[in-house]
Design a protein that fits this description.
- By secondary structure, the chain is mostly helical.
- The chain has one domain.
- The chain has three helices and no strands.
- The radius of gyration is 27 Å and the shape is rod-shaped.
- It starts with a helix and ends in a 9-residue tail after the last helix.
């Protein structure tokens, strides 16, 4: 059975495009998840800083409490 001309000319272009876009979207979702995890860690660490510690450090010194 003969394939239609458009299928012969296209080959597997659409399948390859689907694979590329799928891989791109999966990579984007992974990188967004990693970024969100990092910001959640920063948020968690920020809640551990005490206001009294900041006030006792003065204006010229950076103090961090981990």
């Amino acid at each position: 059975m003969k394939m239609p001309l458009f299928q012969t000319l296209d080959g597997d272009v659409y399948e390859r495009m689907q694979e590329y876009f799928t891989l791109f979207c999966q990579s984007e979702l992974h990188s967004c998840g990693v970024t969100q995890e990092l910001f959640m860690k920063i948020l968690s660490d920020a809640t551990k800083v005490r206001c009294s510690l900041w006030l006792s450090c003065g204006d010229n010194t950076l103090c961090f409490m981990m």
